Fold:
Amino acid sequence: MIRIGSRGSKLALWQANWAKSSLEKAFPSLEVTIEIIKTTGDRYQEVTPPENMPKGLFTKEIQDALLNNEIDVAVHSLKDLATDLNPDLFLAAITERENPYDALISRSGQPLHQLPENAHVGTTSTRRKSQLLSQRPDLKITDLRGNVDTRLRKLDEGMYDAIILACAGLTRLGLKSRISQELTPDLIIPAVGQGALGIEIRASDEETRKHVSILNHEETRKACLAERIFLAALGGGCQVPIAGFAQVSDKEIKMMGCVASVDGKTIIKKEILGDLDNYQNLAQNLAQEILLSGADKLIQEFK
Structure:
């Protein structure tokens, strides 16, 4: 039997059920159950978390359950998973990526460049805010909290002219038609790991590792690991406007990354291209290029 731990949101349960059905299809005799676990992040869906809140808002309680042998598998949105993993845990699989881009959903259906002057846009992400303001400094950007349904309801009720969500979550929930514009990386570079699921297990659990390995997608894994190495090399947390995105084509990997000031007035972007097998060094090199271009000062301001 395999016990999957998941948050209780619609999107988290979609992800957990996808993993469950994939495992059951591959191993018909395997019993798979889902345990719902409430995380710190769930308690702060509608209000701003206190300052200096530790990393892992949406993962810590699930990881604790894994360490305490209350579950066998944790299914995370990879972008929520800190880069400094507990050595007793193992990232056993990274799933094939859904659309990794951010999505603009506007009440008028207009794309970013056609939004009216001083339009009110909702997002809690400093990464999104900084990149939006670098192109549209007139925008009024304020926090947007709640699950996907709550955020869409706030938009529909007129609290915002537009909001930014992840394409992947909207697609998985059958809400792709709500997307007014896919914000490609030339507009907004995605969050590290966005669109992929991270399947975490106990490092010592060889039996579960054999089962969940079928969920792994090797190209996505290498791309996402490159992004996570890049983020770790910058030493950035979720509050720092850092973005990193890698694409694999044949045996090459193209990486782009940026660090920005929250107001979008300073934004440092770099790209690197190289051999896929060398993805670890390429990620480190990209981080060093960005740091040497002045990103170290921007990151230090947040600390």
